[in-house]
Every structure is written in structure tokens, then in C-alpha cells.
Amino acid sequence: MDADETPTGQIPALSIAQIIEEADAEKGTDGAKPASDTDVHPLQPVITSPVGLERALADRDALIQMCLYALDRARSGGVVERLEEGLAAIGVQALRPDGERFDPAWHEAGGALPTEDPALDGVVAETEVTGFADHDRLLRAPIVIVYAKKTP
């Protein structure tokens, strides 16, 4: 028995190429007729009325809230990162204002950290709970620790 005829369960790439070439020469691949009807149809506009737009926006808000809920409970750093990336892709940004001046309109104070440096007084020392904003709309304020000047 020739080595090429020995059954091994594998077909060498050269043999596959020869088989394809022979099949093309016999039948050809250009003779196929186009399908009479494809299963792919153009997308129809989904939002056709103000009610449709309101529904789409409400659904978007609900999905964002569900993602935040899942993010809060995720135990995997990779899952958290992927959820934050997905939210960022639609304009929802994670807020971690470490090093920024505390702004009660955008931040919630969770505690104070004494400092002797007057330049740090009122600056966010660290973020305890990440906040989120949908473009310019605050969804959840980050809970932060704020530097506070030590009193003598």
C-alpha cells in the first residue's frame, strides 16, 4: 500500500487542494443560479412616531439601569470592565473623581480624610463607589472621601 493511500484519518492539504481543483474542473463553480428570494431584507425604520422614540428612550434607560445593577454585583474585574466599556460606547461614563475638587452637585461625601496641606482641603481623596453620568445627566453620584483640613 502506498503511503498516500494509508488511512490516517487526516487528509493532507495538498490532497484537499487537488480534490477542489478536480471538482471545479468537472462541475465548475460559476454555474450556480442566484437565489430566487433571500432571507435578508432591508431594515425597516423602527422609530416612526414620537411614541416610538419615547419607548426607545425608556427602553434605553431601563437597560442602562439593569447594567448598573449588574455592575454593582459583578465579582469579576473583567465583567466590570466589559460592562463599563459597553456603557461608555453609548455615552454613559463612569465617574471616579479622585484628585478633583469636591462638587456637591456631582459628588456624595462618604467621609473625610484629615490633611495638613491646605491645597488638598476639599479635594476628593478617593472614590468609594463609582458614579455614572449619561452624557451630561447624572445617573448616580460617586460616593467619595474628601480631604478636610485638620483643625488644631
Would you kindly provide a written description of the structure presented here, covering whatever features stand out?
This protein has 152 residues and is α+β, with helices and mostly antiparallel strands. The model has no long low-confidence stretch (mean pLDDT 85). Among the domains are: 49-90; 92-152, Head domain of nucleotide exchange factor GrpE (Nucleotide Exchange Factor Grpe, Chain A, domain 2, Roll). The chain is built from three helices and six strands. It has helices spanning 13-26, 50-73, 77-89; strands at 92-95, 108-115, 124-129, 131-134, 137-140, 143-149. A hairpin with a 2-residue loop joins strand 4 and strand 5. Helix 2 runs antiparallel to helix 3. The longest helix has 24 residues, at 50-73. Strands 1-4-5 form a three-stranded antiparallel beta sheet.
What characteristics describe this protein?
single chain; 152 residues; alpha+beta; Nucleotide Exchange Factor Grpe, Chain A, domain 2; 3-stranded antiparallel β-sheet; 3-stranded mixed β-sheet; 6 strands
Poorly predicted ranges (pLDDT <50, ≥5 residues)? none
CATH class (first level) name of the domain at 92-152: Mainly Beta
Q: In order across it, which strands form the biggest sheet? A: 1-4-5
| β-strand number | 6
| Percent in strands | 15-25%
Q: What structural class is derived from the secondary structure elements?
A: alpha+beta
Task: List the helices and strands in order.
Answer: HHHEEEEEE
Which percent bin holds the helix content? 25-40%
